Amino acid sequence: MELWQLFTAEEEYRASLKDRYGRAPYWASKNRTVFTPVISEYLLQNGLRPHYPGNKKFAVCLTHDIDMLYNNISRKQLAKNGAKSLVTLNLQNLSKNLQAGLRKRINPHFHIAETLKIEKKYEAKSSSYFLSLSKEEEDFNYDLSEISEIFDAIAKSNGEVGLHGGHLASNNISKIRQEKEKLEAAIGRSVDGYRSHYLKFNTPSTWEHLETLNFKYDTTYGFADCAGFRNGMCHPFQPYSLEKKAFLNIVELPLVIMDNTLWKYMNLNEAGQFELCKQLIDTVARNNGVLTLLWHNTQMQGHPGLLYDAILKYANEKEAWMTTGNEIVDFWKENKFHEVTKNIFEELKNNRLPV
Ligand SMILES: [Zn+2]
Questions:
Q1: CA of 174 to the centre of ligand 1 (A)
Q2: 171-202 burial by CB neighbour count: b if 16+ within 10 A, else e?
Q3: Residues 252-297: pLDDT tens digits?
Q4: What is residue 102's predicted lDDT score, i.e. its pLDDT?
Q5: How far apart are CA 246 and CA 235, in angstroms?
């Protein structure tokens, strides 16, 4: 494989093996250097000199996909539980079930407040991506018009609200537009950042749709089944479309670590999960890069919550700039790092250098 092929993800244009969600899996990729950001290393060798505010050497982009805020108990299930309590005459349970049905309460453990508390300890800020779905759609869990307290908490912490595109969005520009407009109406402000639910992504059309809809950045691009650097990048970049033969006017903040990738897909034990995160942080720090971390708001309890805290503590000790996607992209552009990067790629395109 050549560096240019890895960077442009050429293999994904003609991939015949995808997983059940239409995603390009790591196991089908020819990228066998997933823990080494080989393209970023090349950029550094050829003139990219990134720096960050406050003389920080690298950045950690903290992100949360808000899939669920309420307990996922359907009305049917509630009715069933109620009926069961009646049969067994468990009055306490019956009243609990009825109450839950009548008064919909955000699960306090899923409330973003927990997350923001951890981040405040390390003077960090984060981006949260919200699903913008209607009741009948797959994985609908909350109505944007009912969660103003969550938006207020995020605004108070100077966090960012972005769009978490639903199951049907990555392939469909009008669906993304509709979801974006609905979220913007709910928060009264424009939305800059995007991440797909389930990390559903089509190379390069999802980027092209987001570019057309004036998103500033996407941060979906990582393997669901393996942490690391999907196209060898640990810096923000403008994707190159091999179809349009042009760089796209959108920035990708490549996703490096998703919480459940560590335990669900990679099967790492608790010590291994932290070890891999530390190694990836060390690698990104060494390359003056940006490590994008995805931690679901539903994973702030027990071991996952402790691990999130431990990762932030470690990154903080290494003096990472920990902030939102939006801030990182703005800083990257203000310092013209995207221009420098593009120029180096123009050269690389013509040099058939092997990985
Ligand atoms: Zn999701």
A1: 19
A2: bbeebbebbbebbeebeeeebbbbbbbbbbbb
A3: 999 999 999 999 999 999 999 999 999 999 999 999 999 999 999 9
A4: 46
A5: 19
Q: Quick one: average pLDDT of 89-98?
A: 63
Kindly give the distance from the C-alpha atom of residue 295 to the centroid of ligand 1, in angstroms, as a whole number.
Answer: 10
Residues near 38 by beta carbon (within 8 Å), at least 6 away in sequence: 3, 6, 229, 232, 355
What is the chain's alpha carbon radius of gyration, rounded to the nearest angstrom?
21
- Of the options 1.10.1040.10, 3.40.50.2300, 3.40.190.10, 3.20.20.370, the CATH number for the domain spanning 3-70+109-350: 3.20.20.370
- The rounded Å distance from CA 258 to ligand 1 centre is 11
Q: What's the CA-to-centroid distance between 352 and ligand 1, angstroms?
A: 37
In whole angstroms, give the CA distance from residue 79 to residue 165. 31
Burial class of residue 60, CB neighbours in 10 A (0-12, 13-18, 19+): buried
Ligand 1 centre to CA of 68 (Å) is: 9
In eight-state DSSP terms, residue 261 is I
How far does the centroid of ligand 1 lie from the alpha carbon of residue 200, in Å?
A: 9
Question: Where along the chain do its domains lie?
Answer: 3-70+109-350, 71-104
Between helices 302-317 and 112-121, what is the axis angle to 10°? 30
Q: How far is the CA of 348 from the centre of ligand 1 (A)?
A: 35
How many Å lie between the centroid of ligand 1 and the Cα of residue 288?
Answer: 29
- Measure Cα distances from 309 to 56, 122, 275, 295, 306 in Å: 20, 9, 14, 11, 5
Using the mean position of ligand 1's atoms as its centre, give its distance from the Cα of residue 67 in Å. Answer: 5
CA dihedral 102, 108, 109, 114 (to 10 degrees): 160
- Cα of 81 vs centre of ligand 1, distance in Å, is 28
